[in-house]
Specification:
Strand content: under 5%
Largest sheet: 3 strands, antiparallel
Shape: globular
Number of helices: 27
Number of strands: 3
Strand order of the largest sheet: 1-3-2
Length: about 525
């Protein structure tokens, strides 16, 4: 069988037998038998598919081990994208199939769309009616709503009998999944740094290399980890994290993030130094008094050592090294969500706009340059155009336009955490364009970070450029897997940064304002067009 045909057959087999882009099997021999080729042929074709960035292969040891293959999906349909590029459309308003599919992918539902929620079957309805317990019915209703979503909305949590508790339990569950990923990186990094010291015996180097390879493989396994199962609310996993939240919610001076990190480290230590087969903690470990005692002893020891060196004793957060974990943006976002109340909207676009555009200076007649003036005049024009809209509709357009203006004028006004979650559809498109034209993504990280094919670097410092590059890299890594990608989306939604592009399109069409916002094909503000129309050069 020709290699191209074998490779295609193998990929088809993996796609048709995978779940959530993950294919697991005990041995490669079983794959070979299913595809009808030799094991060596399977090995060669798996290697080629990895080189083409279509799959990632890892081995999982232990009782339930085997081969874990992650399928890396293409971002776009080539023919549809080529057809879209022939038009002068933008991805927000275009009727082209590519643009419509892109909007559907990133915004499956929107405010003005009649929701087609899944209905219960007759059997499910009979069971539902037979339930007398009010709380059990609430949980069933929540799970039914969740079955139509990529992550629970605020409305779903507010259905519960303990909205804040259910919300925190969900975030703790996602934190657990994300710590699994971050911890694999942390342990691999530890063993790599240990080898770099060049003070080890050959057998010790071999020991560390073994764990470097192990954690590298485990990282691939955990990248797609998602503990939020079907019927999550009321499940064993949910109850475990809900009980964990209730156990710690009233504790004084207790840092849940450092605690979880400490539990992971303790389990890894035992795994690497004993015959234990468990390399990550199970969810129920976090409720164990044993790990609470170990954590408090750990913190007390650190404080004692600091006091013995006559150093100032500060917050626990400053005493424990968490640097390697803070490099994971999804982890940072989940931590911020956990520290926020469910129904708080953190983001105030008007206040951010005021600071980014220096509106206080404007009161004294100070305008920085023509670009500053052009953008301020455009903002005034939009304000006048939306003043007669319904309040919520005007709010959507106001937020969208001001985010576009800030991105054009002072992009680093958004923190890296926030920026990674902004403009997901537009960023997806610019990456697709680069891939279509075989342009290396690593050479265009600034454009990806700014979501522009004509990035203005004049007013950016070296630190700004470094931050934008990090944002692009983080987005590329986290968007590869749905579990981490939807952390980005949930963060933007719950913190108040999310703008539903379908809502924007609907509102502009409703009020005949399709030309109000000059947009590039990427769906970002077309400043060059705005500048021409304003007359300022």
């Amino acid at each position: 069988m020709g290699s191209v045909k074998t490779k295609r057959k193998l990929l088809d087999y993996l796609e048709s037998n995978s779940k959530d882009n993950i294919f697991t099997i005990s041995t490669k021999k079983k794959i070979a038998e299913s595809v009808g080729v030799s094991v060596s042929t399977i090995n060669n074709n798996l290697k080629k598919l990895e080189e083409e960035n279509k799959i990632a292969v890892a081995t999982k040891k232990g009782h339930n081990g085997g081969i874990v293959i992650t399928l890396i999906k293409e971002r776009f349909n080539t023919e549809d994208l080529v057809e879209f590029n022939k038009s002068n459309d933008n991805i927000i308003q275009s009727a082209q199939k590519y643009a419509k599919d892109l909007r559907d992918k990133h915004f499956p539902t929107y405010t003005y769309q009649r929701k087609e929620n899944r209905r219960r079957t007759k059997q499910e309805m009979a069971k539902y009616k037979a339930i007398k317990d009010k709380n059990r019915r609430i949980i069933l209703d929540m799970n039914l709503e969740l079955s139509n979503m990529n992550y629970p909305s605020k409305e779903v949590f507010n259905m519960s009998y303990d909205p804040e508790g259910f919300y925190k339990a969900y975030i703790l569950c996602k934190l657990y999944d994300t710590y699994c990923i971050a911890h694999m990186n942390a342990r691999r990094d530890f063993h790599e740094r240990r080898i770099e010291k060049n003070d080890l015996e050959p057998y010790q180097v071999k020991h560390h290399k073994k764990y470097i390879e192990f954690y590298k493989n485990q990282l691939v396994v955990f990248l797609s980890k998602n503990s939020v199962s079907d019927n999550f609310f009321g499940s064993k996993t949910f109850n475990t994290f809900y009980n964990f939240y209730n156990k710690i919610k009233d504790l004084n001076n207790f840092n849940v993030f450092l605690y979880m990190q400490n539990v992971f480290n303790n389990v890894s230590y035992v795994y690497e130094n004993t015959n234990s087969s468990i390399n990550i903690p199970m969810p129920n470990y976090f409720n164990s008094d044993k790990y609470f005692e170990q954590y408090y002893k750990y913190i007390d020891t650190i404080k004692k050592n600091v006091n013995n060196t006559q150093r100032h004793l500060g917050d626990t957060e400053l005493l424990v090294d968490s640097t390697i974990y803070k490099n994971n943006p999804a982890l940072n976002q989940l931590q911020q969500m956990y520290m926020s109340k469910l129904n708080d909207e953190i983001h105030d676009i008007d206040t951010m706009f005021e600071k980014a555009l220096d509106l206080e200076d404007l009161e004294f007649g100070f305008v920085r340059d023509n670009k500053h003036l052009t953008l301020l005049n455009f903002s005034d024009k939009v304000d006048k155009s939306i003043k007669d809209m319904e309040k919520e509709e005007a709010k959507v357009i106001n937020k969208f336009v001001k985010q576009l203006i800030i991105n054009e004028y002072a992009p680093t006004s958004f923190s890296s955490n926030v920026r990674t979650s902004l403009f997901p559809m537009q960023r997806h498109h610019i990456i697709s364009e680069l891939e279509l034209n075989n342009i290396p993504l690593k050479d265009n990280l600034i454009n990806i970070g700014l979501v522009s094919d004509n990035a203005d670097l004049i007013n950016l410092t070296k630190q700004d450029i470094s931050n934008l590059t990090s944002v692009a890299y983080d987005y590329l890594v986290l968007s590869k897997n749905s579990s981490t990608y939807y952390v980005l989306r949930m963060f933007a939604d719950f913190m108040g940064y999310e703008v539903n592009i379908k809502d924007v399109k609907h509102i502009l069409t409703k009020y005949n304002l399709e030309d109000l916002i000059p947009l590039t094909s990427y769906g970002m503000l077309d400043y060059n067009r705005l500048k021409r129309e304003s007359g300022y050069q």
